[in-house]
Amino acid sequence: MAAPSAANPSLFDCRQAFADTLIALAKEDERIVAVCNDSVGSSNLGEFQKLFPDRLINVGIAEQNMVGVGAGLANGGFIPFVCGAGPFLTGRALEQIKVDVAYNGYPVVLCGMSPGMAYGELGPTHHSIEDLSWLRAIDGLAVVVPADPAQTRAAVRWAVAAETPAYLRVGRTKVPSVSPDETNAFAFGKADRLRDGKDLTIVATGVMVSRALAAGAALADQGLQARVINISSVKPLDDAAIIAAARETGAIVTVEEAMIEGGLGAAVAEVVVRNAPVPMRMLGVKGFAPTGSAEFLFDHFGLNSEGIVAAARELKGR
Prior knowledge:
Blueprint: H1 14-28, E1 32-36, H2 46-51, E2 56-58, H3 63-75, E3 79-85, H4 86-92, H5 94-102, E4 109-113, H6 131-136, E5 142-144, H7 149-162, E6 166-170, E7 192-195, E8 200-204, H8 208-221, E9 226-230, E10 233-235, H9 239-249, E11 252-259, H10 264-275, E12 280-285, H11 294-300, H12 305-316
Parallel strand pairs: 1-2, 1-3, 3-4, 4-6, 5-6, 8-9, 8-11, 11-12
Antiparallel strand pairs: 5-10, 7-9
């Protein structure tokens, strides 16, 4: 199990869940290797390197080469986990992700570490807020965003067995457990309904899921019953869950630690407008995110329970 935060024992680091699971699987499957861009520490690969020194390839600060090496390893029968900070993995190596990995259908697991605005104080160069938009547009590439350690562990296990190109967004911001059933925490392409409600639906992904649940509880105290859906599989999206939410609750708020343009909100809107048009509000990042702590940035963009509550109340009062 992922280690809890020392400051708050109810919060967990999904990167630790990722590392522990990768090591456990690598002990059973010699095809599993890791490739990184001088990010052994930040990708939590230190123990993996110690246990499997011949199965970790550190290419240095050369992300395009890193993805190309991963594609070559996959072509040779390995299952490479290509790990790097989200902005550099996806921004610098987007062409290699598209051509070397997705176009060829190689089972490379691209691991965007510390995505979103988790590197807060390092500023816009280190914010990975466009990755969902970029990668959703690439054909044949799965996009998975776990919400807690249980989903992270399950998603890593799925990625090994699926043998398909995939992007795994591994959060740095510590989160509480939100999975009601840890033994069945993740099903590829399926959404999880975490709270029932008839008045509107909150659709969230990743570190925003726990905030959406807090907003659902606050709205209930104000007389609004909000359904809360966790989208851990951004691509493919669970269209049926979105359509049912639109038809049964009549309004949708989406919440993501990413750009609104092209991300989760856009994906949900595409489904809604084609099948069951209802009013929507999309909460996420607008423009270049400034420099500041992750919590400051969440508050700045209204990505907290108060911001979600305000969007829901405004939507219902329109």
